[in-house]
Amino acid sequence: MSAGLPLLLLGGFLLGGAWSIWRTDDDDGRRTGPQIVFAVILLVAAVLASAAGVLRLI
Asked: What is the pTM of this model?
């Protein structure tokens, strides 16, 4: 079995986590610094995992 499909699934999972953290906010609607940093880290990891998955499938 190719490792491409699990990497794509991992990328989707990480993308969902980044979206979940990004849309979570306090009562005033402002995002905190650590919240932004963690969402960006998850987004970068999702892009890398998805790109690796696509390249493994090709």
From this structure: 0.83
Token digits of residue 9: 């699934």
Structure tokens at 7: 């990497």
* CA–CA distance, 5 with 33 (Å, rounded to integer): 33
| AA letter at 29 | G
- 3-30 pLDDT, tens digit each: 889 999 999 999 999 999 888 766 677 8
Calculate the alpha carbon distances from 28 to 23, 24, 25, 32, 42 in Å: 13, 11, 8, 11, 24
Report CA 12 to chain centroid distance, whole Å: 7
29: left (phi over 0), alpha (psi -120 to 50) or beta: left
